[in-house]
């Protein structure tokens, strides 16, 4: 899932949304805008002029401290344009957005991390197609592989915003150096290292899949990453589109292989308890024991850098960093699982289109990247503006031509499955239900 914050997804959308009117528009009587009427900050965004006094509502999963940063980022936008951003972040975003949309209370814009949910809204006639300016900018700046995830029946409905790499394992460089452990570069080496760490008295793995209404999503990422590594992208695509059944033996094999770690009492759950504690440990807290020496490794996306305690040095020589989740079958290439959110619109007022267009621009993505802890699939991102070591590594992986990228599988599936029975099935699996029964239940729910 894209957590952005999947719920899931923990994306700090703290970019400086500097949508602004021209010098003339900035000085149209708005107290906030008039002070900057002649400023370069406003002039550079003159093409977004004419919306003084308007309000645009945005709904997403970004909340708490990250939501505060997001709200702070609207200041330049509000000062220059007079547009008020009415932002709301919720931990129950995936569950509540359909309720609001179906109930006639949709936001103007939403940051949706599930292409399956985008399709559901588009098929129901709830979404507005991208305006001409937004569509042109999206097609110019975004890779075609990303645009296809928001294209339904030939119509483009969403603009990719943030992105994340999910194929990461977090660890403590300091602890690894102290213990003489080497970062593994193959699945077999990773299992051997896990055995070595377990023998030392430290649990090699920590994990957590609790996430409010989205509980279960972190376990789906495990299955997707393993399936890409055992079967390759063709089978993965067949699975996410239901060209093969959800309980195909190839999928069962991937789940069982993930279980050799997640359901191994010798391996988990460092800092929290046994296997079943995974179901009640929040994904936000799950990797923190890496920094306290209570566990050695935590498989989670690049955005997890935002979850470590304040003061944690995230770097190759720091308190925490990440290595690429190793391949299993070299013949399957270098699989990369990732996700991101899409900016979709439920209304098409001019001021709403202005915000959506700006979010697709080079100016936005580079100003956002300079704030840290954020990457994007937008090809106008200049890596020189990416300061964080983990973000640089993410960009390098995303731009690696030898990589085989696939979007998060549960996000591609129909929402009732990907964000429903799949999530719930993973909770049941962690709590002891057998693989065959779990997969059969999910397969039976796919309509």
UniProtKB/TrEMBL annotation:
One Pfam family it belongs to: SBP_bac_1
Gene3D superfamilies xrefs: Periplasmic binding protein-like II
Tagged with keyword Transport: yes
Endpoints of the signal sequence: 1-25
Keywords from the named record: Signal, Transport
Similarity comment text for this entry: Belongs to the bacterial solute-binding protein 1 family.
Protein name: Carbohydrate ABC transporter substrate-binding protein, CUT1 family (TC 3.A.1.1.-)
Organism: Micromonospora krabiensis
